[in-house]
Structure formats: structure tokens, C-alpha cells
Write a structure and sequence with these properties.
It contains 11 helices and 8 strands. By secondary structure, the chain is an alpha/beta fold. It folds into 2 domains: 1-42 and 198-239; 47-197 and 243-324, Alpha/Beta hydrolase fold, catalytic domain (Rossmann fold, 3-Layer(aba) Sandwich), CATH 3.40.50.1820. It has an 8-stranded mixed β-sheet, with helices on both faces. β3 (94-98), α3 and β4 form a beta-alpha-beta unit. α1 (2-42) crosses α7 (214-236) and α6 (198-209) packs across α7. It is elongated, with a radius of gyration of 23 Å. The mean pLDDT is 90.
Length: 325
């Protein structure tokens, strides 16, 4: 009997030791992964594709009225730059185009050329910490939401469009949607391949890297993302939980179209499904065979038609409201 009790005690001690070891390993691994995640996310590489811009060449061949270099200064002193492009045949409205992570304004020039052909002015800023804009950090909407507000104020003071629309791609889509918590001057918004939040994208990244299912990846990813949130606040004063498209969408007062590739491996279609439930003004277009931010290539003609239809419908609603008042 004593032998049996000793064996049970040994087994229990062994189990406790293994459990402590597993928890210690998880804590250490979570700390490392969380810190690396923050450093990589907040310090994105810069891209400079201005020399290869087809938009500049289009301007040179009189396909657009002209490309103007513009700049503003954010409240924290960061200087932000971009292009303001006028079409040959102006319809009086303007669209702010926001590019994705690790890119510059050239990344959204396909969308710009579509809109310019149909008479829209386009404002194409480089996000802070990206392209030619200043800034040591990219915060996925925490700081950039205020930048969006400032760009709209600049646009309305400089050129006074009839309607101002917003378009964002990937990180730009997240920034655009996050800005809706404080910005209600858009007539309509289109967000292509937006994650729910940077935290939710972190869960997906964790699942993908370690080849885990979404539920297991989310469960095991809570530790690293908790460390990431704590580290980003302590090290940089940035609350990653605030980089949330969901938070902005709940305050949206204008129509929002979400474009989501059905084959997107970077931002799962579940993100668009979740965001569509945040506000009755939201509609989702799922694009078959499209990956991350590739809907414009996979379904080009329909992509163009949907962009124009969405903005034109918003313009008609605004005109109707103006007549009624």
C-alpha cells in the first residue's frame, strides 16, 4: 500500500513539474513572440515606387489634368506627404486613397486611374512611417485616424469637393475604418481586405505560422498578443487594441462597402463577416478566386463598376437630403 501511495505521489509530482515547465515555456515563448510581433508591426519597411508610377506617366501624356505634391503637418509635428490629382473632366467630388502596409501611394494608383477617368479628384497620401511621409512608427490607425481627419480638413479647405469619399486597402482599409470613430465627413467609404483589428490579425498570423486551426491558434495566441499589447504600451505608448476597424465601424454614419477576397490567406474572410455585423450601413462583396487585395486584378470590370456605383449612390442620397432640407 505504501508503495502504491509513493507511486501516486511521484506521478503527481511529475505531473506538476511538467505542468510548471510547460507554463514556463509558454510564458517565455509568448514574451518573445509578442515583442517580435510589436517590433515588426510598428517598424514596417519603407517602399519608394514613385519613380515607376504610371500615374505620373499618365499625367505627362495628358490623361489627367495634373499631379500636385501636397503636404500637411500632424499635431505631433510629423510631416505627411502625398499627391493631389485632378481629372480632365471634373465631377466635383474627391476620393482619399489609403495604401497598405509596407507600401506607398503608388500601390493604389490603379484605383486612382479608374476614379480619374470618371471625373473624381484623388488625394493619395503616404501613411505615416511609410513612403515619403515622416514618422518612426506605423500604428495601424491609432495615430493615423487623426491624420485622416487632417487630410479631409486640408482637402475641404483647399478644393471644397461636393462629396468626399474614402477608399482604403489592407492596412489603409483598417486605418480608414478606424477613423470613422472620429470622422463623419465622408459621403461613403470602401474598404478592401480590412482585418477586424491588428490583434485579430495577430491571432491569424500566429495560427498560420504554427499551422494551427483558427480556434486553437486564437486560444494559444492570447498569451503572445497580451504581451504584445503590454509591451507596445510600455515601450511606445501605443495601445494596439485601439487599432480596430470594429471600433470605428460602430460609429459610422455613412454607407460602407467591404471588399473581401474569398481566397485571402492573409486576412481571412471571417473578418469581413464579423465587421458586417457591426453596423447596418455595411455591405460586403466577396470576390471568388481573389486573394489579399487582388480583387481589382481578378474582377477588374466589376470592381470598377462597384466602386462607381457605390460612390454615385451616396452622391444621389446626399443630393436628395439637400433638396429635402
Amino acid at each position: 500500500m505504501f508503495t502504491l501511495i509513493n507511486m501516486q505521489q511521484s506521478a503527481m509530482l511529475c505531473f506538476v513539474a511538467i505542468s510548471i515547465g510547460v507554463l514556463a515555456f509558454y510564458a517565455i515563448a509568448s514574451s518573445i513572440v509578442g515583442v517580435v510581433f510589436v517590433e515588426r508591426v510598428l517598424h514596417l519597411p519603407r517602399e519608394d515606387k514613385l519613380a515607376t508610377s504610371s500615374l505620373r506617366m499618365s499625367a505627362a501624356h495628358s490623361e489627367v489634368a495634373g499631379v500636385e505634391d501636397v503636404r500637411i503637418t500632424a499635431p505631433d509635428g510629423v510631416r505627411l506627404v502625398g499627391w493631389y490629382v485632378r481629372p480632365l473632366h471634373d465631377n466635383g467630388s474627391a476620393v482619399i486613397l489609403l495604401h497598405g502596409a509596407g507600401h506607398d501611394r503608388v500601390r493604389v494608383e490603379k484605383q486612382a486611374l479608374i476614379l480619374l477617368r470618371h471625373g473624381y479628384r484623388v488625394l493619395m497620401p503616404d501613411s505615416r512611417g511609410q513612403g515619403h511621409s515622416e514618422g518612426r512608427l506605423t500604428t495601424f490607425g491609432v495615430e493615423e485616424s487623426g491624420d485622416v481627419e487632417r487630410w479631409i480638413s486640408w482637402l475641404q479647405a483647399y478644393d471644397t469637393p461636393l462629396c468626399t469619399y474614402g477608399y482604403g486597402q489592407s492596412m489603409g482599409a483598417l486605418i480608414l475604418l478606424r477613423s470613422l470613430a472620429v470622422e463623419n465627413r465622408f459621403c461613403a467609404v470602401i474598404a478592401d481586405s480590412s482585418p477586424i483589428s491588428i490583434v485579430e490579425e495577430g491571432y491569424d498570423l500566429f495560427s498560420h505560422i504554427f499551422r494551427l486551426g483558427p480556434l486553437l491558434g486564437r486560444w494559444l495566441g492570447r498569451g503572445p498578443m497580451a504581451i504584445a499589447a503590454l509591451y507596445s504600451r510600455c515601450r511606445y505608448g501605443i495601445d494596439l487594441a485601439d487599432a480596430s476597424a470594429e471600433r470605428g465601424l460602430r460609429w459610422a454614419t455613412m454607407p460602407v462597402l467591404l471588399i473581401q477576397g474569398a481566397m485571402d490567406l492573409k486576412v481571412s474572410p471571417r473578418h469581413a463577416g464579423h465587421l458586417s455585423l457591426c453596423n447596418r450601413m455595411v455591405e460586403v462583396w466577396y470576390v471568388p478566386e481573389a486573394g489579399h487585395s487582388t480583387a481589382i486584378n481578378v474582377a477588374n470590370s466589376e470592381y470598377e463598376a462597384r466602386l462607381l456605383r457605390w460612390f454615385n449612390a451616396a452622391k444621389r442620397r446626399n443630393e436628395t437630403k439637400s433638396l429635402q432640407t
